[in-house]
Amino acid sequence: MAGRSDAASILTEKESNENLQRHGSIRKVLHSLVGNDSLLGISARMLDRPKQYRVDDDLNPYQDFLREYALISEYKLLCQNLIPGLYIIPSANSGLVWFGVLFVRSGIYKGGIFRFTFKISESFPDSPPPSVIFEDKIFHPSIDEETHELNVTSIFPVWSKHENHLWQVLEYTSTIFYQISTDNAKNLSAVQLYDNDIKKYKEMVQTCIEQSKQNIFNRNNYEDANYIRFHEFNESVHREARLTLLSEEPKMKNISKCALSWVKEGTLKPCSLTPYNS
Fold first, then answer.
1. CATH number at residue 134
2. What is the rounded distance in angstroms from the CA atom of residue 212 to the CA atom of residue 34?
3. Which of 73, 85, 223, 267 lies 20 to 30 Å from 195 when distance is taken between CA atoms?
4. CB of 100 within 8 A of CB of 115?
5. Which of 58, 66, 59, 60 is nearest to 29 (CA)?
6. Which backbone phi and psi does 205 adopt, to 5 degrees?
7. In what order do the strands lie in the sheet with 86-90?
8. Rounded Cα gap, residues 187 and 146, in angstroms
9. Looking at residue 262, what is its pLDDT?
10. How far apart are CA 77 and CA 146, in angstroms?
């Protein structure tokens, strides 16, 4: 009797552990909500449904959340690879649409403030490269004059989720305004002027820059809470924030552990300087 009791106890404990492990793994891998229903509730119905019910019919909700996690990971990578002059945020309505603004700080396009929409395929990450569509007309060899879409396929002809990342497309978007290339161009008239009449080309570019500055305050997407909006400077509203930004000084982190060291030129004598030295 004791042997049977012990065996029953062990079996019950084993089943309990298996159940705990199964639910635990789900919690770790997937979001707690799928749509408006709890994940465990959906899992329970999957276990209780008749055997003839197709399990594949319920895979889409899981794929949606796995795609969402992939997008979050890509956005984190973007934050780790900051692109100067670029401000971008995912739409409040869809993680597959990001709103971006690029401030060009040097070169022919200096002063330009170019808004664009970054669109990611629903099949991401097993998808073609994302598309970059500018809101305003930009005179540039790589940007289609009619659709305002940047040609990214010349740089990313085959998209690989193991090698390519969204931040790389955004970096390329910034680079085209500093390093102008006429290869695989979308705007042939821009190519012709750039190669044969650079003065006229710069005049066309300057017109786009001035137009972008005028439109920066006019554009507004009231349907999306995350659309990037700009307001003209108002002394009574923005003065305090401006003074705070101007008065901030770079702070050294972990100052107690910081030190500078080098070897004097022409000698092997080491020199060092700590932040505490005057």
1. 3.10.110.10
2. 41
3. 85
4. yes
5. 66
6. -65, -45
7. 86-90, 97-103, 113-119, 131-134
8. 9
9. 53
10. 32
Asked whether residue 159 is assigned to any structural domain, the reply reads yes
Domain extent at residue 183: 62-222
Residue 147 belongs to a domain: yes
> Beta strand 131-134 with 86-90: parallel, antiparallel or unpaired?
unpaired
Closest by alpha carbon to 104, among 208, 195, 204, 20? 208
Asked whether the beta carbons of 64 and 55 are under 8 A apart, the reply is no
The angle formed by the CA atoms of residues 217, 223 and 228, to the nearest 5 degrees, is 40
Q: What pTM was computed for the model?
A: 0.66
Nearest-angstrom CA–CA distance, 156 and 172: 10
46-73: b (≥16 Cβ within 10 Å) or e: eeeeeeeeeeeeeeebbeebebeebbee
